[in-house]
Structures are given as structure tokens and as C-alpha cells.
Amino acid sequence: SQLSSTSLFVKRVVGLPGDNNIQMKPGSNEVTVDGEPAVGPDRSLCADEPLRLIDRLLEKGNGRSIDRLDSGDVYVLGDCKAVSVDSRVFGTLPKENIAGRPLARIWPLDRIKMTGDF
Q1: Which residues of 44-81 are buried (b: 16+ CB within 10 A; e: fewer)?
Q2: What is the CA 36 to chain-centroid distance, rounded?
Q3: pLDDT, mean of residues 59-87
Q4: What are the Cα distances from residue 30, in Å, to 35, 41, 85?
Q5: 82: how many CB neighbours lie within 10 A of its CB?
Q6: Confidence (pLDDT) at 104
């Protein structure tokens, strides 16, 4: 299913307009941009979901392989790789859909941070 125009979620922008060769590696589901690992912290913040429901979404995901990001598109990833529905699943996101920047991280509790770069 497609995202609603009213869907609101927090994701990390890892691919910008003009970036090339965005690939999701089979098995690890890690993402590379221009042959380099996607930027950001360790994305293994959450334990694997026991039923591995994300695997079914990733198998047919629209963001497994993208040649080049168009001028109005970004590629986003969630910090909980094991369960995150992100660009690996739904593909690119229009830049105009970005509503803001997070002010704090409150989960997991041992990684609370109020401001700055997450």
C-alpha cells in the first residue's frame, strides 16, 4: 500500500537529490549510496522482530535498487533496521514531504538525547 499524504513518521535522510547507485544488500538489508554505507549511527537499535514480517516487505520493496535520485526526491532510513518501514520498502520520498527536524530522541531509553545530531 502507498503512504497517505497525512502519514507522519521520523526517518533519517541518507540519500539526497543527485545521489547515484542506491542499493540494498540482500541478506543484511544494509543500504549503500554511491558504493558507500549510508550515513548515520548504528541502525541496530532494536531487537529483531520474532516473526520477521519486515522481510516480506523488503523482498518486494520499491527502494532495493535506485540508479539516481531525482531533483525532488530523498531516500530515508529508520534507526531500527530490523523493523523499520522506510525507503527500502516504499522507495523515494518527495523532499516536499519533509515536515521538520526532530528535537529529541526518547527511545530506546538508554539513548535519550535532547538536541543535536542523532
Answers
A1: ebeeeeeeeebeeebeebebbebeebeeebbbbbbbbb
A2: 15
A3: 91
A4: 12, 13, 13
A5: 16
A6: 82
Contact 19, 34 (CB under 8 A): yes
* Per-residue model confidence as pLDDT tens digits over 23-70: 999 888 889 999 999 987 666 667 666 667 788 888 889 999 999 999
Phi-psi sector, 50: left (phi>0), alpha (psi -120 to 50), beta: alpha
Query: Which grid cell is 71?
Result: 531533483
* Three-state secondary-structure class, residue 56: helix
Cβ partners under 8 Å of residue 57, min gap 6 = 85, 89
Other C-beta atoms within 10 Å of 11: how many? 18
Q: Which residues contact 24 (CB under 8 A, 6 or more apart)?
A: 30, 31, 58, 61, 63, 64, 65, 88
